[in-house]
Queue: 2 jobs
Job 1
Amino acid sequence: MSELQRFSMTINGKPAGTEYFSVLNPATEVPFAEAPEATPTEVHAAFAAAEAAFDVWASDDGVRRSALRKAAEVITANVDELAQILMSEQGKPLADAVGEAHGTAAWIGYFADVEIPESEVITPGAVAQVRIPLGVVAAITPWNYPLIQAAWKFAPALRAGNTVVLKPSPYTPLATLRAIELLQDAFPAGVLNVVSGGDSVGVAMTKHPVPAMVSFTGSTSAGKAVAAAVADDLKRVTLELGGNDPAIVLDDIDVAAAAEDLFWGAFVNNGQVCGAAKRVFVPESIYPAVADALVAVAQSVAVGAGDQEGVRLGPINNRAQFERVNGLLESAVAAGARVRTGGETVGDRGYFLTPTILTDVPAGAEIIEEEQFGPVLPLVPYTDIDDVVNQVNRSKYGLGGSVWSSDPNRALAVGRRLRVGTVYINGHAINHGPHVPFGGARWSGIGVENGLAGLEEYTQRQIIYGNGADL
Ligand code: NAD
């Protein structure tokens, strides 16, 4: 029997798990705990439990509000434990893990309290519209923000009256498993279930007959597979997928004042953010100054294990991603790109790569056209802003884009031309909180998360012809 700590799935309010896989710390590459690999029987049991719990849970919004309020308190009371687990499996610095755990509570709290219109009149005295829950929701999350991404899904889904089966990434299952275990204090059995395991568990969930909806966050390739899988029985779906966001710098920018924000708009969470800036378009006239300023910020940032004092960036989360980012970097360099800073490992263990600024990247290079999802940022010179806008709008990805200028309205005029889900002026990957919807265009996804619009994704619009009834 393994010496490693074993985490449990939660099915129908009870711990579950029969087969296990180990989870590594990406800063050391050493396995430190085990998570269950859900069997088909366990996946089925989770959906059966969620289905059985649905009718009662769907019947009383007051109960749902109080349960979610309690859930937010439970997370807040356990922030330290959850953050330690999250840091160990994901790699992010402890302060960021603590921030994510607090954010998880804040999101749940928001969805507990958000006012949902009971009904909306369409024809006074005759026709109204209400929102009814869908049934069981299958929720699947990635490894970059496992805890808060889970809350982005289960909190609105539950508040809307659905029950949930959640599956975290096999790279980062532990904080989610522990959080859902703790949350059983807040919810009736079967309302919020969690199963863990590899991609095949996700596939089984999308093909299972019980869920009425799949809420998926992950890569574009997996998102397409999910869309195909749900087509069979027309499950509802939201897809929050990859991005290749541009940051577009205009020629009147105050380089010194903007450099820190521009850097962190790309390197937040080590670049492992769907909505981070993945390429920076810079006017040729100020290209050297912008490059120098970003290099200076990159060189001031401490990289190391998440539990080390002062560290701002941890390792890349897993070996496959580490190899992908290094591969993109190597092929850019082979094609003539210049590494202005970074591109180095740290120590002799762990998936570390120091923040890397690339200049002179040939047009069309994969690192410009595809999502790198790691700490490597190409700077792309331009002379004509129309070319940049066209290039962005032609991209398969359409998650977000930012425009940077000393004159915010001048930036906004460019921003409004971008066909993307979020436009930022003088910032990137900013998040003002759970009330703001988030989603992407084209290959970046379908539907939105967060805000009332995000909650509505978990509902069916129902039109009622009252014929004299009080609507
Ligand atoms: P991934 O697609 O490999 O995996 C995400 C989750 O889906 C995991 O739980 C995985 O086990 C599961 N999965 C994989 N294939 C599946 C399939 N065919 N059917 C069902 N489930 C399947 O993604 P990842 O590597 O964990 O995450 C990184 C990606 O996620 C990046 O592309 C990033 O941009 C994207 N992402 C998007 C958002 C957003 O809101 N748009 C947020 C975070 C991450």
Job 2
Amino acid sequence: MVNPPILSAEQRATALVKALEARKRRADVKAKVRSGEFSIDTVLEIASNEESIAKMRVRELLEAVSGVGNVRALALMERLNISPTRRIAGLGRHQMRDLRREFMKTARDITPGKLLVLSGPGGVGKSTVASRLRATGDFWVSISATTRAPRSNEIDAVDYFFITEDEFSRRIRDDEFLEWAEFAGNRYGTPSVPVEEALLAGRNVLLEIEIDGARQVKAHMSNAITVFLEPPTWEELVARLVGRGTDSPERRAERLQLAQDELASAPNFDVVVVNDQVERVVEQLIALTS
Ligand code: ADP
Ligand code: 5GP
């Protein structure tokens, strides 16, 4: 065991003053968090420059947030995989990002937008609903990146950002996706920066993504509203896929096979909406944000 350094009386007094100052500074920062003057983001920023704040326990910081008590702080840390004794300085890059997302704060006079995640089996009508919602102006609709080849009617940077496998892998490595998943042999991902910027600017945001992606978003952003779009009947789902005419019979069979598993996930969503009439679905989704 390493022996503690032997300090002179003067050094001990200096160390004591330093410790008292650090404690006072932590109390001051926590009071500002409590009053709403400082956001979690601000404190994480301060911690990158100030040792006394970097040494604060994450749990203490979270408990200072109005409305987050002891129990919620611990539950949140468990969900984000942060050990209960972790100090701010010990947080990993992903843990920092998740905390920032959890407490995303906008400028004082802007109410943050709501994040709606629309999922459901292929062919149920998600893109149709998403483009109608975009047209209403009530939502900013995220454009995903994909490794899938464009369909004849699709336009790059409008329907998707069509990118190569290598570019997709690079974006995963650089942590550029809010979520990503593989579906029917292709990869799809939501670029995180535009989504976060739109929410901070007070826009409601719509993600139209498959089921595993929706699960990932909910795990990181608990206030996201996940919506499962259901077909009125199985026969209608098959008819819509055939009617769309964009997939070969083999591809369609593969998508229908996947759709059976997808339909079983409806109970894991916050809301289930039946897509009988597009206009009715659009109204229901707008109502969810008010
Ligand atoms: P997804 O994006 O879920 O794969 P699409 O939006 O491409 O599905 O819709 C599949 C097909 O179903 C399209 O041809 C679309 O026009 C049609 N469709 C969508 N919603 C409805 C609806 N409520 N009633 C009838 N047809 C619909
Ligand atoms: P499609 O190839 O028919 O355009 O899309 C196939 C599936 O991928 C659909 O269920 C669609 O919602 C989903 N999808 C589109 N973009 C994303 C995304 O960014 N992330 C995830 N997880 N799924 C996506």
